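Q: Could you write out the predicted structure for this multi-component system? I'm mainly interested in how the pieces pack against one another.
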Amino acid sequence: MPKISMRQAINDALHLEMERDPRVIVLGEDVSGGAGGTSGEREAAGGVFGLTKGLLPRFGEDRVIDTPISESCIVGAANGAALTGLRPVAEIMFADFVGVCMDQLLNQAAKFRYMFGGKARTPLVIRMTCGGGMNAAAQHSQTIYPILTSIPGLKVVIPSNAYDAKGLLLTAIRDDDPVIFFEHKSLYMDECEVPDGDYTIPFGEAAMVREGEHVTVVALARMVPLAIGVVDKLAAEGITCDLIDPRTTSPLDEESILESVRATGRLVVVDESPPRCSVAADIAAMAAEKAFHHLKAPIIQVTAPHTPVPFARELEAAYLPSPEKIEAAIRKVLSGR
Amino acid sequence: MNAITPIIMPKWGLEMSEGTISNWHVAEGQTLSRGMEIVDIETAKIVNTLESDLEGVVRRLIAPVGQTLPVGALIAIVADAAVSDADIDRYLRGDTPAQTAANSAPTSAPTLDTAPVIDRTEPAAAERAADPDLARRNEGVPATPLARRIANRHGVNLSRITGTGRNGRVNQEDVEAFIAANPAMTSAPAPAPAVTAALDNRSVHATSHAIRMANRLGIDLKRLAGTGRHGRVNVADVERFAAASGLTAPAPVASIAPPAGPAARKLAADLGVSLSSVNPTGPKGHATKEDVRNALAAPAGGLDPDPIPKGRDLVPHTAMRRAIATALTAAKRDVPHFYLTADILMDEVLSLRGQLNAMAGAKISVNDFIVRASALALGDVPDVNVQWTDAGMRRFNMANIAIAVAIEGGLVTPVVRDAGGKPLRTIAAETAALASRARDRRLTQADLSDGSFTVSNLGMFGVRDFQAIIAPPQAAILAVGATRREAREEANGAMRFRSVMSVTLSCDHRAIDGAIGARFLAALRQHLEQPLGLLS
């Protein structure tokens, strides 16, 4: 099985699905990059992160559409395309810009099926990059998936590795509801073994990344590889953890998390988002509500602080959850304090 | 061979009393040949591999990974393929007299309660290397032994992994990353478990905990309809099935303690009451705060033997930590210690060491001098080179010096044999090799056994002097402090700065009297203060 990066895995999934289903189109800022330009080079970018490279030459400009710099227009056009029978995959270059198109997401895409009595389908995927660690400052580093997770009618996917990214993206494109697909920028280069062909990963089914007895650790996106390092290190000491990657925050695999918490009695949630109204807070609240009598120690959340993402490298490093913070949390939850 | 042969917990070395199964290399149904690796066992000090000295088919793996068993306990059954399962069951029940192999007398009754339903949280026996072809193919790929083992166990073809280790070698991380990235892999046990027991529950659409519980109870998940998301089987489904089939609900780990709310838990922790000693009267069998207070008042006490103090972490003990605790507690309790401290002038040793190490190739430490001098002093005063036994005094005719080496998580004491008969240079080389193997945890039982005297040196940490605990069955240990500069009065009344080292000899008074210990220290001092003799 070839070992490829998450960038390549997502690019592969787009190629596969556009080949398989002629209704799939891709649109966004610079997804090919040369439209209307004077350089004569038609595929000038292939996406700023290279995720849509090679799509234009293969599928043509009717299906790979460079848009103006207007997120409202991108999502609005995608909404219309989806309602009229296409399966658009729109790209918002940075999730931080989602505020600009919030009405199209919150009040339009998420609501069509409900407002039209189930007669309308919105098979729409919106890919967006998220996450810190790239020294990209406060407007290009956020993990705003809690905002979108809180909106009923949207499905939210946050892969932590190339294998999951490909399988989840194929599921997302084939889903008849709007799906927000978050891609953590710092994971694009991470490689793992990914099958060549077609496979899908169902939404709402967490991955049990490691199995253990003493602590349940739930981690999302880039926090998963960090947590793997810590969990494996502690395993050498005899401390073993269930490490759960929910993979989708809406729907959330409550069952897997609760079963694990009921077995271990201890929960650490690791999330790169700030702590207020976050996915970590949501999971912690769920465990406190539904596994209360199994808890042996207070739940611990390892999150960023409630501030914008700092620009200075040192501050950003201090802001993000680190292996040291995760390890300290696991040791603390074991101490029962 | 038509007999049933038990594989028992081996005894490696005099002091081994129990071992922990750390990794099975064989699966049930696998044919054993002589010399084949059977199982890794962790003892107090080493991890060693038990090799087969017989041929036959592995019929039962009794002891799961992680279980600690006394020496002589039954861990597996080997028999000819012709022997029926029923015969093996009869044997396990004890109906058939044990047909013991030459080296393996089962000294304890086989434990039937560990029926061969293997908990999935442990790597199941059927998962490991059940495909000999794969294992053979993997042999050809450059990989670390651990990586190869994990790959074989999970049915991973190593040639599909790009190694990131030295010279492109596949390491543990590579294999684990591959497995983590391929959920299908994690869930696909290596091909066809040959015999019974292991269930193929990983291939069923079920939650991780449902699979673990089903494996604990021996339930085949294929027989269940899932009620979870996308028809997934969850824990509740397994519990319902178990109840309907009359299976006892699985005891969750450490479930002896009743459930309790946070307030009751906190009170129990504050009062040092173990929840398992609390008689729950609350709703749904929960322990209330009142119950906790009652448990404290009850005459049975119910004091938690191990309450977690505030401000501490509770980290599970390693086998080494437990062994150290047991051995040293016994030593300090049972051995009547006394201590003799002496100062030794080290100027000559330091000067001689400087000259020796200035010569190409030599790298001799002060400790090597002390080891050699101790060995010669034991030769001068053989009454210290002894061990107390109830039957009589065991005397050694050569000085086997054990050297305390600190390693992560504890310490080990590898032995330089006959240090009195070896030149300094040999002692230095052997000590360096032993210390390096100790840090890699690769010492063998032979490296660790037969010590007659221990040297423990904390001088490099600036410790001035200390009193060491004797390591039974030895009768003495030398605690070595740092060499310091100190003003001394010379014979002519002048003051001069000298290099001084304090050593403290701990003696077992049952075997060694004060005057004998003092004679040893005098001999040691003489060897170190006139060190040319150490070169002979």
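A: Regarding packing and overall arrangement: The CA atoms of residues 277 and 302 of chain B lie 5 Å apart.
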